[in-house]
Amino acid sequence: MRGCVYAQNCFPICCGIDVHKKFVVATVGTTNKSGVTDYQTRQFSTFTQSLLQLLDWLKAHSCVHVCMESTGKYWHPVFNILEDYCDVVVANPKYVKGIRGKKTDKKDSIWLCDLHKHGLVPSSFIPPLPIRQIRDLMRYRFKLINVKSSEKNRIQNSLTVSNIMISSVVSDTFGVSSMRIINHILDNPDDMDFEVSSMLHGRMQDKAETITKSINGNLTKPQADKMRVCLHHLENIEKHITDIERVVLGLAQPYLPQIEIILSLPSIKDVFTAIAIIGEIGSDMAVFNSSKHLCSWAGVTPQNNESAGKKKSVRISRAGVYIKPLLVQCANAAIKSKKCPYFKNRYDQIKKRRGHKKAIIAIAHTLLKCIYHMLDKGETFNFELYKIDSKPKQTYASQITEEMAIRYLQTLGYQIPDMPNTT
User: How far apart are alpha carbons 363 and 366 in whole angstroms?
Assistant: First the structure.
């Protein structure tokens, strides 16, 4: 609400922009001292030259407060032009949705202007440009890793349908020894009686006979051609991932202190995991009101859905589609950490009552709260705060006294006669 009372004009001069792919419709609302608002609406193309004209038009009206709906990726060009001069609020569509049947482009822009005029539009989190660049590249890296996994699955499927069951013997089908055997089979499809032991490293020599039996299959030419294409694609993807990582490391240099802080967590050891977290939440925690606000934004807290005094679904929201899986992976590593057993103990406590999924989300929630406070205070993870006593305190008496035994029997329904005083 930006500290405004309902129906009070927070911004006497503001603009609402209805964004589309080919054009935008902007409405500037100017409110006088009597509370009467005068609207001026214009349409601009989404080409850069036309968007610069939009900026000049806003300057002519002394308008620095702008609100627009986050429509796909179409809001990015407008935001890039207005970012330096205007205070731009990018709103979630569910907060500014118009009434069905009374929607036009002009009415939508006026509606956005009216809502923003009274301070009724909560702003979405838009990090600074350097963070946005890191976020974009790290999300692309995430997609490439998914494609890489898909190609590995296709290669594994080709081996399976060809009766080559090497995956049942080795722990990693795409390890060095396994790939030597697979490449030999692809290069020499007619040679099925080759010596396997020379391709295996020392610890796998004991499995040479079993591996020889597992590769006794029938690899057809179409399957072999498919595997060659997949392997070539896999090599290209790995090269592209390396190129992306090199660029990301260059962009992340200004944020090395924050990355080191995140790497101090017991579950985060990969520098790119820390960079991905920085790319999603930024390095300045002042943009979030509290750690609870950050956790809600990331989608690791239950929703509020109560009506008539009855609580309905309290499932976590769909927010944080990129950071939530990342936090869950870190949580799975945290519960296995022997350096800080707190997370495992907390996970076991919740799992008994609520199950694995809710327990792992709770650990992800705890990790994100840790990251918030660590970045906010500029401190590394303090293990002493999560130290567990090796000798837990007893919550029950070591010995049962006579008085406790009598009281227990009475709760079961027995009548205990008065005992004679022997003293």
Answer: 5
Alpha helices in 252-335 (DSSP H): 256-263, 271-281, 291-298, 323-334
77 φ/ψ angles, rounded to the nearest 5 degrees: -60, -40
Give the residue carrying structure tokens 């003293």: 423
Selection from 222, 219, 233 nearest residue 150 by Cα:
233
Q: How many CB atoms lie within 10 A of CB 258?
A: 22
Output the pTM of the full model: 0.84
For the chain, domain boundaries: 13-117, 130-253, 255-386
CATH: 3.30.420.10, 3.30.365.10, 2.115.10.20, 3.10.400.10. Which one for 13-117? 3.30.420.10
> In Å, how far are 122, 220, 245, 255, 272 from 279, measured between CA atoms?
22, 46, 13, 10, 10
Distance CA 296, CA 302 (A): 8
Low-confidence ranges of the chain (pLDDT < 50): 1-6, 390, 423
Residue pLDDT, tens place only, 35-67: 889 999 999 999 999 999 999 999 999 999 999
Q: What is the fold, at CATH topology level, of the domain defined by 130-253?
A: Helix Hairpins (1.10.287)
Neighbours of 225 (CB within 10 A): 12
